[in-house]
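hey so i finally got around to running the thing on that chain from the lab meeting. sorry it took forever, my laptop kept dying and i had to restart like 3 times. anyway pasting the input first so we r on the same page abt which one it is
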Amino acid sequence: MSFVQKPTDSGQQKLSRKEFSFDGDEKKKKNLHRFRNMLPFVAASVAVLIIIIDMGFQPNNALRTLFNVYYDIVLLIGFLSISSPYIRNKKIIFKKAALLDILLLAALLLVFLYNLWTTVSRSMERTHNFMTLFLMVSFLIREFFYLRMQINYRRLGPAQLFVVSFLSIIILGSFLLMLPKATVGNISYVDALFTATSAVCVTGLNVLDTELIFTLFGQFIILLLIQSGGLGIMTITTYFSYFFKGGSSYRNQLLAKDITNDERLDNVFSSLKSILTITAIIEGLGFILIFISLGKEDTTLAGRAFFSLFHAISSFCNAGFSTLSGNLYDMRIRFHYPVHIIISFLIILGGLGFPIIHNIWEYITTNLKGLFKRVFKDEKYTYSSLVISVNSHIVIRTTLVLLITGTLGFFIFEKEGVLTNHSSDFGKWTAAFFGSVTTRTAGFNNTDTAALSVPATLMCIVLMWIGASPASTGGGIKTSTFAIALMNFIALIRGKKLEYRGREISQLSVSRAFAQMTLAILFIMAITLTMILIEPEKDPLNLLFETVSAYGTVGLSKNVTPLLSDAGKLVITLTMFAGRVSMFTLLSSMMKKVKYSKYKYPTEEILIN
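ok and heres what got predicted. didnt touch it at all, straight out
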């Protein structure tokens, strides 16, 4: 019996050793695969960090030589990393990102060969080779997007991811603005944090003179922060992760759906693509129009180009940042009405919201295609179900009413006030229109905001509180929120349900609208009271103005913000962040949602009046 048992035990031991060996090999393969995936990303991250050190500080020649050697190593790693999947599987050459990969491969190879060909003395200058720096950043972005789909976000919900993404880019931006080459002289971290928050939250409030304090490198950092904050870092990363991977998990589709507010799950990535495409087209057109409208005598060609690019992005993102000390009230641009009009329409388009622009664009193109077929191809009329949505109707009408009301209000209240700087009626009406536009979340000023009358100041506070539209680059409680609340008042007075254009507005939308309004009012009251306690020597009305401007991510100031103490600056910094992500989203990210709510209690009426 014992003789028979021994071989069995031995066989089991051999089998378990084989299983252990097999498991060990699998773990080694997984670790090796993980290392291969992470190496390009880590190498590119270190390269970009070195570039920041190289550009932000002044390293000696020995360090620069080491940097150049490392750049060459990363270029080689990048070439191997991008090309290896195509070598292993030729079918993926036809995937969406193949063309970009091929272009990046060619550029990496050319720069690497050029760097090898140059002499040692010449290599000292390679640090300033724009192509090398551009490729490092491009490679890092590609690897980041490629890896992002493999990251597990199960512990974070959409609201938490939204908040964390903004917080991360703000902290990174504040450290970048602290680099010696970013500023003329040294600045405090509180000022750097305030500026980074203002840029990422597309507010535009300043405690430092952007033209005098920040170098061209520093202004470029601010521009990148504005663009990433205006679009939303989650929008950019989610779409390009899908683009480079060629697909997406179900969870990432749900995350993208939350970003785009799309009803259909299969439309979310096309919506993200539309957002990025719309942004590129509008900002590109804005850049061209501003560049053309500026006279050749205004500045150099490079200066005109950077001014146009900066203000096109800042306008569409509703940021309100300017490269001029006096913003658009600066004497160099104060009476340049064509630029003011172009910037006004960029602000309006950015404040409408991507879903609205996309809906209008689809409606126009669909009808134009149908008209073309009927006229030139003699095709019969075909019915199209694509119409301007109820949401688009509400947003567009509310925006028009606010623009007209604001323009008339500015003209009436300030005709004998700040508008007297403009000699012609056209100039006065243009300034009034610009004031109405920019007050709702943009923050550019072409008048002396500190000199506004009390009625105009109160009107500005209301407009800043309302803000832009949902899913836009602007802030505030949003136009649709204000419109729904107003329509609900009218519906209650008339004793009927809330209806619009043959549709009944859901009770959930009404509840969210009142929640947004209530939270905004309570938060603004609390912050204003705090500011009055911290800055007792300041005018309470001016502090209320600054608080609403920060919460609405507007950026208009009564010249109070630059004079605040560090404590006051930090409070306004918190207000800008809360206004950009919205108090509703901020609280949603901190509170645990109820998992089971499939029950209903008996309804009870509560006495209200």
